[in-house]
Amino acid sequence: MGVGTSTFVIRWINFLTMLLAIAVVIFGVWMSTHHDGCRRSLTLPVLGLGAFIFLISIVGFLGALKNSSILLWIYLIMLCIVLVGILIFTVLAFIVTNNGSGHSVAGLRYKEYQLQDYHSWFLKQLNNTHNWRHLKSCLVKSEDCNNLSKNYKTLKQYNLAKLSPIEAGCCRPPSECGYPAVNASYYDLSFHPISPNKDCKLYKNSRAIKCYNCDSCKAGVAQYMKIEWRVVAIFNVALFVVLSMIYFVGCCARRNAAKSSSKA
User: Fold this and answer.
1) Is 179 within 8 Å of 185 (Cβ atoms)?
2) How far is residue 188 CA from its own chain's centroid?
3) pLDDT, tens digit, for every residue of 88-122?
4) Rounded CA gap, 178 and 78, in Å?
5) Angle at which helices 120-127 and 215-263 pack, to 10 degrees?
6) What is the CA radius of gyration of the chain?
7) Angle at 67 between CA 61 and CA 71, to 5 degrees
8) Bridge-partner residues for 181, per DSSP?
9) Are 13 and 56 in contact (CB under 8 A)?
10) Alpha carbon distance 187, 149 (integer Å)
11) How far apart are CA 73 and CA 14, in angstroms?
């Protein structure tokens, strides 16, 4: 790859990633002003990611603009760190999300989930009292459970519904309890549960309680996290390929810059 071509490509790629980084930082600032504590907890990682992308991009852009071998070396080292980080995170994400799958229940269109099916990392995070207290407050604020009665007006509609993992685990008692549903948000708890599952006694019809303290709810959250992590892991694979190509172009630009400086 020629001197002009490699530096031109690196220059424009990093100019575009600088714009992307600015957009990420703006999004992080918006999140910090949002009143939802769940989104606010992600503010620092988002701002940090945006700042780091901006820093790498500006170093690469200036290195290509000035044809500086030193700046391009720094750029390649930083980019290499990012590539290694993405690779490690992606491998771990696939390992952690390898376990856990729903269990089909007769008469239901959705699956129920059991906490013990998931990776030990998920169990550690979800069984941590502080972590779960925060997650539970987010679940209550989201009003996913309260919206079930609005989305499914009749019991027939509710029984035919395809609930999400969180709705199935946090908004209703496990099917094995045997509680008859009166509507989408209310169960007849006067019946003695036919299962020894502790979740049967933890479930309450109260909007603030529901099954938020149940293992089935933690399992629903674990399944949601598993799906999200898989999406991120697949995205990271694509990102790794793209950044590897950029790294290759950057190597060409640095080598050409070194040759230019030696000739000078």
Assistant:
1) no
2) 36
3) 989 998 999 988 888 988 888 899 999 999 999 98
4) 57
5) 110
6) 25
7) 60
8) 187
9) no
10) 12
11) 15
